[in-house]
Design goal:
Largest sheet: none
Number of domains: 1
Strand content: under 5%
Order of helices and strands: HH
Distance between the termini: 24 Å
Amino acid sequence: MGAGETHERLEQMREKARELAEAAERADDPKERQRLQEKSRRLRSRSEQESAMRSGDIYPSE
């Protein structure tokens, strides 16, 4: 996977995380809100880890 493809994939992951966070804010059901927030958090964390690893930081943040 080239650098451009990786950057694009990471951007897509971040955008999806933002969309999930926004959906969580609009959710009326507390359980659904929590589920969406957790999914957004995991996706954001994964994209940050992959970004750090691609930039030369070999130690994941978790």
